[in-house]
Amino acid sequence: LDTIQITGGRVVDPASGLDAEACILIHQGRVVSVGRDPISEGPLTIDASGLLVLPGLVDVHTHLRTPGEEGKEDLDSGTRAAAAGGFTTIVAMPNTDPAMDKPGLLTRMRQEAQGRAAEVLFAGAVSVGRKGISLSPLQDLARASAPMFTDDGNNIRTAGLLRQALVQCSELGVAVADHCEEPSLVYDPGIAEGPIAASMGLRGVPESAETAAVARDLAVAAETGGHIHIQHISTGTALEMVALAKARGVRVTAEVTPHHLTLTSGDVERLGSLGKVNPPLRSTRDRDALRRGLAEGTIDMIATDHAPHLASEKDCPFNEAKPGVIGLETCLSLACSLVEEGLLGWPDLARVLSLNPARLLGLDDRGRLSPGSRGDLVLIDPGARWIPRAEAYQSKSRNCPYAYLNLQLKGRVIMTLAGGRVVSGRPWTMGPG
Ligand SMILES: [Zn+2]
Asked: Cα separation of 244 and 340, whole Å?
């Protein structure tokens, strides 16, 4: 259907400051109007009474596992998982096989990703093969639509390489994102240094693995004027460093994952290998500092770090397990719990899950609901309660700590529209106008 209207919902659009009941009219995939009276006959009408209506969510950190590991996830399952979680744009990380370091590969993957339940953008690798030796052809990759660069999974190997990347990317107008863990300080990956690691016979990862890497990145970014984006920040100390750098005018943004906002190293005892993530879950103090940092704006956005793995790669001894958890389908609900706790308002939630990620990617036609912007919307029932069941996920993988913990989540995605098309949702909430 060409024209669709969403009526009766509470529309939250931080870009315009709107937070009120309003009707949204979408025609040919674009928003035509927000706040005009509903049209009585003609368009398909979705009654959003009692629901929140936000701009479609944007995830700047998704592992889609393709090309190379389609048994874990692929374009189809990954975009369906995104749509189920309210995400209409996702950025696939380049730690694939082969790595995303060639414009031809990027163009081919972009073509294959067309027409899916969510738009997929592909971050380029900073270095060839993500090996940290020589720079990828950043300019050609950016021309082929790479919205940012990262060697995610690996820390950008040297300060010199980072500096070259920041200089080039600054000219290209894109950010360099970094997985901030200094490898020589990662003794046993995926678990914080401390008594829990020790009880498992592991040395773990000290805080300095992150702070040393963040300090280096901020110093180099300050000198070049380039935009550094700190991926999955996990410690209160790194947060303080980012706050200081921001105050000094360094072009830095930071993301935090839902799991670092909700779980701690204490949970690893119960979760076992399901609690193994890079960077590791840290102390309650760190978690609470990250929550405050998000509320105060030092942390710009939530990013899922959705990391699908086979059951056999998690159902094994901790030190043999692969790091990471899936996150696309639970992220919004976990963020809703921060609203319920009074840490964020709904406009803040839309800012950290949609507007700010869209800005990082330089996409000004999404992350907002104004005439001309893409018809990307998520309808949320803030009062819904549900217990996630891994078998019911759209993702091919099941490595979800919240399902394992049998945790009740608050707030749920009811429907997702991408480009004016319903890509996820329950049919009984729809009806003809
Ligand atoms: Zn990472």
From this structure: 29
Q: What pLDDT does residue 356 have?
A: 98
Ligand 1 centre distance from Cα of residue 336 (Å) = 24
Residue among 169, 168, 58, 170 at smallest CA distance from 120:
58
Please return the burial class of 207, using the count of CB atoms within 10 Å of its CB with bins 0-12, 13-18 and 19+.
buried
Tokens representing 236 are: 């209160």
pLDDT given for residue 185 in this prediction: 98
HSE-up of 414 (CA within 13 Å, CB side)?
A: 23
Ion ligand 1: protein residues whose beta carbon lies under 5 Å: 152, 179
The vertex-259 CA angle with 386 and 255, nearest 5°, equals: 120
Enzyme catalytic residues: 305
Q: Which two tokens stand for residue 214?
A: 């963040």
Q: How far, in Å, from the CA of 177 to the mean position of ligand 1?
A: 10
How many CB atoms sit inside 10 A of residue 97's CB? 9
Give the mean model confidence (pLDDT) for residues 131-156.
98
Tokens of 359: 């800005």
Task: State both tokens at 176.
Answer: 């360099």
Q: Which amino acid is at 100?
A: M
- Give 3-state DSSP helix, strand, coil % of the chain, rounded to 5: 35, 20, 40
Q: State the sign of the Cα–Cα–Cα–Cα dihedral 387, 311, 80, 230.
A: positive
Cα of 385 vs centre of ligand 1, distance in Å, is 30
List phi, psi (to 5°) of 66: -130, 135
Q: What is the pLDDT of residue 426?
A: 65
pLDDT in tens, 36-91: 888 888 789 999 999 999 999 999 999 999 999 999 999 999 999 999 999 999 99
